[in-house]
Specification:
This protein has 22 helices and no strands. The chain is mainly alpha-helical and 455 residues long. The longest helix has 24 residues, at 198-221. It is flat and about 65 Å long. It comes from Saccharopolyspora gregorii. InterPro entries: Cro/C1-type_HTH, Lambda_DNA-bd_dom_sf, TPR-like_helical_dom_sf.
């Protein structure tokens, strides 16, 4: 069936390509509608009922591999753009050693730039916008002219935007936000061309640092690591000249978490430690970075330092006056301390202590903190399996899977991987809990990536 009525610009759109990478079909359909493609035409091309297309546009996820394949065929989308078998992703080429080496070089370059900036060495920034922000040029058309004058209320509006994004991210994950945030960051940069007082300019630079760090976080939530690092590099550019030194610490925290969740824990530890240097004035931010350092050390080559970092992070948080500390980290409360403590203990094999701290973390979670609750429930179930308490493990695991159905984050795969391995061990045995473990493994597959459970 011909797709000539679909404008080629749709498939050149970064928002659409990023949505396809994480199989966010609702965003694809929305962009098609914005380009004049009707719901009935989408239904005709994809073999869906028009009511099904409407459901997808209203937020229903498409998880069926068969339907995804039909959508790809009907709309003329290369399957590789959605990470599906049968056709390589022309943009990824992940198995090419040269490409892999290039990505490693980019990460080393980012780490070197961050270290030079924090430690006060001379940094050549003449080409930094080109160096780190090539990805950013793909997003949206800029306004034809910058605003005439920027005041403190304009900068405050950016802070309100970031607060709203934080709440959505915390509850549902960051998938679906990235194109919006990245475009907002690029448009906000045009504000620098307007007239403003020096005080407002300094505040604006700090806000741009935070906005690009937020864009980096949402990119990583979508599994777009290269785009995330591009934003983190741009955030450091603005943070260097801004009035908010803790904004750099926040950027390094976010970049470190990307490495911890998807990359190299030793690089993550370096980024957390660089962030700690910039966070000395804030007990709260320092505690976040120390606790994450302990987690990275547990995964990496510094296990001997884990206990010291963990104790230091907990002590710093106990002394922090959260409501008077850095606003961008006031979300980090007692539940987060308990959750990170349990996560570190799980990695180093202290399963009883891990289960205690993780169960307390889950109990302390507010109703809106869904993503964190999912991660902690999965880790708690993993600890319970290790302790031989299979009934509790299955109960907590089922709850994690149930809640995970409403979370849209590329981090789900890694954070549920340990629990799935525990399930797979039982499925491959004659254990009495084998059937429950298989059911749980299939539930995990349903929220991360469909694949068969070996029997």
């Amino acid at each position: 069936m011909s797709t000539e009525d679909i404008p080629p610009a749709v498939w050149r759109s970064a928002e659409v390509r990023d949505a396809l990478a994480v199989r966010d079909i609702g965003t694809v359909y929305r962009v098609l509608r914005e380009h004049g493609v009707s719901q009935s035409r989408i239904a005709q091309l994809t073999g869906q009922a028009q009511s099904e297309v409407s459901d997808v546009l209203n937020g229903r996820a498409v998880r069926s591999y068969e339907l995804l394949a039909r959508i790809a065929t009907g709309l003329g989308i290369p399957r590789g753009w959605m990470g599906m078998a049968g056709e390589p992703d022309p943009a990824a080429e992940g198995t090419d050693p040269a490409v892999e080496e290039d990505e490693k070089a980019k990460r080393r370059r980012f780490l070197s730039y961050a270290g030079s900036l924090v430690l006060g060495a001379e940094v050549d920034v003449s080409g930094s916008a080109d160096l780190f922000a090539a990805e950013l040029r793909r997003f949206g058309e800029l306004p034809p002219t910058p605003p005439g004058r920027v005041g403190s209320s304009d900068v405050a509006a950016l802070d309100v935007l970031m607060g709203s994004l934080r709440q959505i991210d915390q509850r549902y994950g960051g998938v679906g936000q990235y194109g919006t945030v990245a475009a907002a960051a690029r448009r906000a940069e045009r504000m620098l061309e307007a007239s403003m007082s020096e005080a407002v300019r300094s505040d604006l630079l700090g806000a741009l640092c935070k906005l690009h760090a937020t864009a980096g976080w949402t990119a990583v939530e979508n599994g777009l690591l290269a785009s995330g690092n591009a934003h983190y590099g741009r955030a450091l550019d603005f943070g260097r000249d801004g009035a908010d030194p803790l904004a750099i610490a926040r950027t390094l925290y976010a970049a470190g978490r990307a490495e911890l969740d998807f990359g190299d824990p030793n690089s993550a530890l370096k980024l957390f430690q660089l962030g700690s240097i910039r966070a000395e004035a804030s007990p709260l931010v320092s505690s976040v970075l120390q606790l994450n350092s302990a987690w990275a050390a547990a995964h990496g080559e510094r296990r001997g330092s884990v206990r010291r970092m963990l104790d230091q992070g907990r002590a710093l948080h106990a002394t922090a006056e959260i409501e008077a500390d850095y606003p961008m980290f006031r979300w980090f409360g007692e539940a987060d301390v308990l959750g990170l403590t349990g996560s570190v203990q799980l990695v180093v094999g202290e399963h009883e202590s891990a289960a205690l701290h993780l169960s307390r973390a889950v109990a302390a979670r507010a109703p809106g903190e869904v993503r964190s609750a999912v991660f902690e429930l999965a880790s708690l179930a993993e600890a319970k399996f290790a302790l031989g308490d299979h009934a509790s493990a299955v109960r907590h695991g089922r709850r994690a899977v149930l809640l995970a159905g409403g979370v849209r984050s590329a981090r789900l795969r890694g954070r549920l991987a340990g629990l799935r391995r525990r399930c797979a061990e039982l499925v491959g045995s004659r254990h009495a809990w084998r059937d429950c473990a298989e059911e749980l493994a299939l539930g995990i597959d349903g929220v991360i990536a469909p694949r068969p459970v070996p029997r």
